[in-house]
Amino acid sequence: MSRDDGGGGNSSYGRKAFTRSKAHFKDRITADGGDGWPVEPGRYRLVVSRACPWASRALVSRRLLGLQDALSLAVADPIQDDRSWRFTLDPGGRDPVLGIRYLSEAYDRRETDYPGGVSVPAIVDVPTGKLVTNDYQRITLDLATEWTALHREGAPDLYPKERRDEIDAVMEDVFRDVNNGVYRAGFATGQEEYEAACTDVFRRLELLSRRLEGQRYLVGDTITEADIRLFTTLVRFDAVYHGHFKCNRWKLTENPVLWAYVRDLFQTPGFGDTVDFDHIKRHYYQVHTGINPTGIVPLGPDPSGWLTPHHREELGGRPFGDGTPPGPVRADEEVPARGRP
Ligand SMILES: N[C@@H](CCC(=O)N[C@@H](CS)C(=O)NCC(=O)O)C(=O)O
Q1: Which of 17, 99, 115, 283 would give a disulfide with 51, using CB separation of 3.0 to 4.6 Å?
Q2: Beta carbons of 156 and 323 less than 8 angstroms apart
Q3: Catalytic residue among 102, 107, 159, 183
Q4: 13 is catalytic
Q5: Contact 162, 168 (CB under 8 A)
Q6: Does 183 participate in catalysis according to the annotation?
């Protein structure tokens, strides 16, 4: 039942270096509907795995922006089978809105004989059941900038115009060395390749740690898209990247700045309440049988530290800018107790 394709439907690893290919379906859902997909409340369904760092970006954005009622959510089983992501967590093994058992069915409706892999995050058009986009780099930017008419009152500006150059530059470094760096280390098939990737991960983390020593967030004094993208990797760091992906020069809990930074975000409404450590650990340790042949899921690390005081508020910062925090999680979207610290 295990799959072992490197954690990216369109990605590959093997004898050559791990490569992450570009998303295949790049249509955008926009305010003016330029690609044929206008922003409309209730029309689309976001399909995620809570295990997946790329999909988790969208989970956080959707919560911060208050899009839960406008953009519904399907959560896939963290363990894929040979047909990839499946809705076995839902009654009858079917997504209750799309009526499908596998995400691949939405891909097939969009394009028959699609040669690439099936990946999350994905946004599906509910009336036709067709996949619209699996472009994980674009999805959250569009939620922030194109879905504004449906944002909640008090929603933050996650991609402020005046700071986009800086946000983009930070995100590029974070993507290359951290978000994707841990995958390059984890799926390396040669010593040199692994060492180079692992070195990049920790070199960048040291730089980020220095940057975050005196400022609460990565860019400016508010939470931006850059923080969301760093968060989704850091929150998985000790649980899976340190052991499973061998990024083990140090644990996040051993870096006082980054550990406080990520706890601060974790405790901010919209971040930690989307995280399911049970899904994260089971997915990585059970699915990647090439690097963990027994499929044994470790018991640790102890997650209780996530809720301890971080003192980052002493640095100032205005988490939501002129806005406000999101309200509580919808009852039907709460992470089960076994996945929470
Ligand atoms: N679509 C992107 C990024 C999204 C991605 O890698 N998602 C993973 C989960 S973390 C996925 O769905 N992989 C497909 C699979 O494991 O079947 C890519 O292929 O690089």
Answers
A1: 283
A2: yes
A3: 183
A4: no
A5: no
A6: yes
Q: Is the pTM of this model over 0.85?
A: yes
Say whether the peptide bond before residue 121 is cis (omega within 30 degrees of 0): yes
Task: Encode pLDDT of 265-315 as tens digits.
Answer: 999 999 999 999 999 999 999 999 999 999 999 999 999 999 999 999 999
Question: What residues are in contact with ligand 1 under a 6 Å CB criterion?
Answer: 3, 5, 7-11, 20, 23, 52, 54, 80, 84, 117-120, 134, 136
- Distance (angstroms) between ligand 1 centre and the Cα of 311 equals 35
Terminal CA-to-CA distance of the chain, rounded, Å?
A: 28
Bin 321: left if φ > 0, else alpha if -120 < ψ < 50, else beta. Answer: left
User: Which stretches of the chain score pLDDT less than 50?
Assistant: 1-10, 13-15
**CB-CB contact of 295 with 286 (8 Å):** yes
Rounded Cα–Cα distance for residues 176 and 27 (Å) = 24
Beta bridge partners of 124: 45, 131
